[in-house]
Specification:
With 142 residues, the chain is α/β, with parallel strands linked by helices. Helices cover 44% and strands 17% of the residues. It has one domain: Sugar-phosphate isomerase, RpiB/LacA/LacB (Ribose 5-phosphate Isomerase B, Chain: A), CATH 3.40.1400.10. Strands 2-1-3-5-4 form a five-stranded parallel β-sheet, with helices on both faces.
Length: 142
C-alpha cells in the first residue's frame, strides 16, 4: 500500500508520527520542518499523486484539517475526508469512497494514528445507495 502524505508546518509532527506506521510505504511530499508554509501547496502535490496513480491513497495534515480539506476538494477527482477518529475513517471510505484522509493535528494528536490510517486504507466502498451520491458529487465538478 503506497500513501502520499503531506502537511503544512502545523501538521509536521503528526506527519512524522504517521510515517512510522507499519504496513505502509509513504511518498513524503513535505513539509520537512516546522517553518511556516502554505497548506494548499501540499494538497496539490498529494492530490496529483492520487490522480496520477503514484499512490493508492493520500493523507493531508494541517492544524485544524479544514484548510487541507477545502484545498484538496477543489481538485477534480479528489474526495478528501476530514476525519477525527476511527469511526470517521471507516465511514469516509465505506460511504464516501474518499481517496484522501485529512487530519487536524489539533484534534488527533493524542489518538491512535496508525489505527485511523489502517481503518481508512482497509475499507472498501460499499456502493449501493452511496454510489448515486458519489456520482452526484462528481457531477458538481463539471
Amino acid at each position: 500500500m503506497k500513501i502520499s502524505i503531506g502537511s503544512d508546518h502545523r501538521g509536521f509532527k503528526i506527519k512524522e508520527k504517521i510515517k512510522k506506521c507499519d504496513d505502509f510505504e509513504f511518498i513524503d511530499r513535505g513539509t520537512f520542518s516546522e517553518e511556516s508554509t502554505d497548506y494548499p501547496d501540499y494538497a496539490k502535490l498529494v492530490a496529483d499523486d492520487i490522480l496520477q496513480k503514484r499512490a493508492d491513497f493520500g493523507i493531508l495534515i494541517c492544524y485544524t484539517g479544514i484548510g487541507m480539506s477545502i484545498s484538496a476538494n477543489k481538485i477534480k477527482g479528489i474526495r478528501a475526508a476530514y476525519v477525527i477518529d476511527e469511526e470517521y475513517a471507516l465511514l469516509a471510505r465505506k460511504h464516501n469512497d474518499a481517496n484522501i484522509l485529512v487530519l487536524g493535528a489539533k484534534v488527533v494528536e493524542n489518538k491512535d494514528l496508525c489505527k485511523i490510517v489502517k481503518l481508512f486504507t482497509e475499507q472498501t466502498f460499499e456502493g449501493g445507495r452511496h454510489l448515486k451520491r458519489i456520482e452526484k458529487i462528481s457531477s458538481l465538478e463539471n
